[in-house]
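Annual report, structural modelling task.

Input specification for the adenosine-5'-triphosphate complex:
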Amino acid sequence: MVAVMGELWSQVGSIIASFMFVYTIFKDYIPYELRGYLERYSHKVVNLVYPYVQITFHEYTGERFKRSEVYGAIRTYLSACPASSRAKRLKAHDIKDNKSLILSMDDNEEITEEFHGAKLWWTSCKYVTKSQSFSFYPASDEKRYYRLTFHRRYKDLITGSYINHVVQEGKAIAVRNRQLKLYTNNSSDDWHGYKRTKWSHVAFEHPATFQTLAMDPKQKEEIINDLDKFRLGKDYYSKIGKAWKRGYLLYGPPGTGKSTMIAAMANYLEYDIYDLELTAVKDNTDLKKLLIDTSNKSIIVIEDIDCSLDLTGQRNKKKDDEKDEDDEEKKKDAVRKRFEEDNKKSKVTLSGLLNFIDGIWSACGGERLIVFTTNYVDKLDPALIRRGRMDKHIELSYCCFEAFKVLANNYLDIDSHHLFEKIKCLLEETDMTPADVAENLMPKSVIEDVETCLKKLIEALEMAKEEAKKKAEEEEAKLKAEKEEKEEKKSEKSEKQDVKCNGNVSDEVKEENGVKENGVIT
Ligand SMILES: Nc1ncnc2c1ncn2[C@@H]1O[C@H](COP(=O)(O)OP(=O)(O)OP(=O)(O)O)[C@@H](O)[C@H]1O
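The model returned the following structure:
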């Protein structure tokens, strides 16, 4: 028995070796055109005896940066279908609200399903792209796809209704399981030392809502209506021939709730957030790639846009001292260093950013909000924030009484109190950010009750009022002193001019010396 098995194995081995030999000759010595011709005919022969059809669904379609929605829907469908419970190797890739574990098939795993009597097989496959297969970061170069195999007699059933059913069902499950995500872009070096930027994400779990957001109720309602109109505006946008996206500019002093509002928007619309760190983007091309890789139903945020980058489009000039370097090695070193430095710095330009917002590429996909935040709206280039790019400008300002009432409700669970009237007067006279108001309202220990917290706020408001008064007085005194100084200089100048006109000394220097030395003009 052992001898028979040994012989069998040796025969199998020699068949495989012969096949490899023929395949190598085929690849190396047969011309490309002839190879294509032979492959076509060999497929025809195989088709005569192999009755199965295969369809592949790639993770990235078209150009390689865009994630396929169909692939995502299939993944979700396969994660939920009963057949997947029979798979032995599964991958846990998402946890919704820390409650349910979502599992999908691991690489090279296969499951079998039945649809109206047709048996079909789903295989999850993976390959590494050839050009980057030596990378130290193999995960970043891996491409995935699903392969669907079925008998050719079911071709109409599968292509006509099964695939449609899978995609629709997958999308519906995704909506039910939707866990909002917070993406950020990280840059890493590829094999050639170039910076590459990619999105990575965590679950988005910010609890802010429009209900907890402290601001003028009218302004809040206006924003909510605007968001509703946008969300339901697919047909309207296509009717007016505009990409389905909208720009929001949030501006105001630090601590007035700009970031909190973005979180409230995401929770209200159930959109993912892409927090774009512009300084980590290598150049305009990289920026474009990131844009294409964002999904629909998302908010792309650039915080503190005024200090994100020097958006002048200027490249770094060569350093002068490098001109004198004769030594070849030193020159090479300098070039390498400059390359490394250049590679670290972002070369995103204003025009690149403008294209990102409303260039042709920005119309890939839809239902996207672009939000900029800034503390200094006047510093921004007008082209960046003109209507049409940043459609809605929202000012978030110091805490008003209505906003305070929201915070009092959030932090102390109260709608009214006898101290409210005093707080109202103080808020009208003093500028305090919602962040500072909130900080004072928050009980710091168990013995701090509502009254104590409100008194604490009153104290802080009175102090702020006093400080503002002092500051205003100082400012006034400074202005007064400057004014006086100016007037003094002016009168000195006019005195000098009088002397010049009336005096009999011809030389100007002598005249001045005369004034200085004797106090009288000679
Ligand atoms: N309008 C607001 N409503 C509710 N909470 C607020 C509001 N503004 C500020 N806060 C509170 O203050 C904290 C800081 O606010 P936030 O980060 O949103 O301010 P910001 O305007 O984005 O500040 P910065 O300009 O410094 O980024 C938040 O965690 C939140 O608790």
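The chain has three domains: 1-50, 52-179, 182-317+331-395.
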